[in-house]
Amino acid sequence: MRGIPSWDGVDIHLLKVLNVLLNECSVSRAALKLGLSQPAVSTALKRLREISGDPLLVRGRFGMTPTALGLALHDTVRAALEKLELMTFVGKPPFEASQTRQAFSIASPDYLNAGHLGRLVGRVNRLASGATITMHALGPDYDWLGALESGEIDCVIGNWPEPPEHLRTAPLFETDFVVLMRSGHPLLGSGLTTDTYLGAGHLAPTPHSAGPRGSLDMYFARERLRRHVAAQVPYFNLAPYLLLQSDLLFTCSRQFAEHYAGLLPVEYLPLPMSLPAVRYYLLWHERSHYSEADRWFRDQVMSTMRDDEPLSPRPRHALPV
């Protein structure tokens, strides 16, 4: 077996790609793990082969398999990455929130309670007055996966049943579904059953505004339940205002309903069907995982979202859920 070569043209990015390729033995799986396109990983592998003078991975019976040199390099590359990571942090001054002028960015769906984001802005402003926060909406035309990969955004708040596997995730909080309606709605007195719920008129988000298919839509599809959607709205935060002049129902998270029940003459009842809790989580890309500033910002997001303190006064008429 030839000796391990001296690679003058290698950089940290290529080392990371090689490490994941040797772990996964698949260009497609490595691309998912790295959050890169398959052509990008193939190009990196080609460059690594040129530098090393060895194929490093070759086709085998069940996919790709490392060459003798690839196997010899695996532990060395892994150890080198760990040392480079440590040297990077040792050589950098510690992050100080009170002194930073960092620009942070976060994307979230518009059905998240606005009080959560307001409290996040307040927290960051108190601890890092020189920092700025940019909010991005997860609309149908926004490539949030590409934005995470490029660094355009630092993190994303989501609640989809299956988040992308190649992203880092951390749980934020859980909530349940309730049914929001105007004060004085007939169903407030008679109660809400599955039959009365399905027989009522509903206000719903337009399909494109809801992002990846949520647990409520999946439940209706699985149980083959139909409800009459009498009106659609492109933005969640418009829905409570549209309920005021009709007997329509709007199904949303309990935190969202509580927020608007403290602001408008609307009330809410428990959803009559039993659905699993809605889980919100934070997502971020591997590229920003080790950044001290980004880690600090993620800590603020998680602390804010996990805080059980009420976001608005709970109205007397709101029923417990």
From TrEMBL:
Family annotation (Pfam families): HTH_1 (PF00126), LysR_substrate (PF03466)
Domain HTH lysR-type: from-to ranges: 10-67
Superkingdom: Bacteria
An MF annotation (GO) of this entry: DNA binding
PROSITE patterns xrefs: HTH_LYSR
Keywords: DNA-binding, Transcription, Transcription regulation
Family classification: Belongs to the LysR transcriptional regulatory family.
PANTHER family, A to Z: HTH-TYPE TRANSCRIPTIONAL REGULATOR LEUO-RELATED (PTHR30118), TRANSCRIPTIONAL REGULATORY PROTEIN (PTHR30118:SF15)
The protein's name: LysR family transcriptional regulator
Organism: Craterilacuibacter sinensis
